[in-house]
Amino acid sequence: MEIEYRAIGINLAITKPPSASKASEQIKMPEEYLKREFPKQYLQNSETNTALQCQTVLNIYGKFGWEHYQQGQLGNQVILYYKRNKEDNKLDFIKLDPKEEAIIQKLDPQQKPY
Question: Domain extents for the chain?
Answer without folding.
Answer: 3-108
